[in-house]
């Protein structure tokens, strides 16, 4: 490929301020002041890692649609995966949902895909074992998952079942002596291409209950194929999973908790809250990159940050970030107080994801044509937001959950 002459004008290279001793520029109302000193120290340690090891590799990984596997060890060294369950060095109690939310926002601020990887493992997979497993099953799997020696995935969604998967699940589980036989198909299963275990949800043919099963990746009859050609969250390794006569022992059935899909429902309530924090972090990253770009990019002899219409875009973005952050904070506080509901988490996800979609579009608009190339970062957030907008409950489904809560009437079609 021909090389351009050295005097060809270089494009501005906006960057996030990831200095560990400074707060995020987008936290305009200083919500991070609600964290304790120890929580703040952990957040700053994470920010340092994100700046040194994650930010430099994500654009290339996004373009190649690959997951940088070295990040697994990096996150393991941070000892964060066990926080929701009180696991890890010197821990005896679970971390606050508020603190966990800020961690997710911080990761998504740098890259939404990496945050999805972390959330799938620590929230969906570990959460399923914690909520649905017996104490023996928790001790068998969670410590190694907390150390990230065992990586998990969460197999719920099916090719013909997304929003209605709980009621219309086609994957089946049949008891055969001391084993269960699983048959069916799963789709959009994040982390699945490299996960060590996949929590598969299947309908018990005898009771019609949906149950969870921990399936090791090398189990005979389970085929995992990466989904290619994605235009969003390209770093996340989503896969199709085919289950054909897959046999697992009875002690791999999550038999604590209720032993049914209600356990997964409780996990999804918390991870839906985490998804709102991911939407907040994505907005923060897009806003901060747009601001950095506006301060560097000159037109008509001055930085575009000095033009009224550019400032209007920046203020609209900042307003969205601040409102979304406020809702995510309050939802986390309610969850910490034991007062959080499905409707609270649904409204937080719907609102934050909708505002995120506006914010990343405005960031792309401010950056202009340069916003569709990876070199300026904004394009990655703009693309990834489309996937974040839909997962952990679409806008429509979350709207119906909240609508039922405020009116007392269910508008779900059955």
TrEMBL record:
Ranges where the Acyl-CoA oxidase/dehydrogenase middle domain occurs: 153-244
Domain Acyl-CoA dehydrogenase/oxidase C-terminal, chain residue ranges per copy: 266-406
InterPro entries, alphabetized: ACX4-like (IPR045008), Acyl-CoA_DH_CS (IPR006089), Acyl-CoA_Oxase/DH_mid-dom (IPR006091), Acyl-CoA_Oxase/DH_mid-dom_sf (IPR046373), AcylCo_DH-like_C (IPR036250), AcylCo_DH/oxidase_C (IPR009075), AcylCoA_DH/ox_N (IPR013786), AcylCoA_DH/ox_N_sf (IPR037069)
Alphabetized Gene3D superfamilies for the sequence: Acyl-CoA dehydrogenase/oxidase, N-terminal domain, Butyryl-CoA Dehydrogenase, subunit A, domain 2, Butyryl-CoA Dehydrogenase, subunit A, domain 3
Cofactor: FAD
Pfam families on file: Acyl-CoA_dh_1, Acyl-CoA_dh_M, Acyl-CoA_dh_N
Chain ranges of the Acyl-CoA dehydrogenase/oxidase N-terminal domain: 36-149
Domain of life per record: Bacteria
Similarity field: Belongs to the acyl-CoA dehydrogenase family.
Protein name: Acyl-CoA dehydrogenase family protein
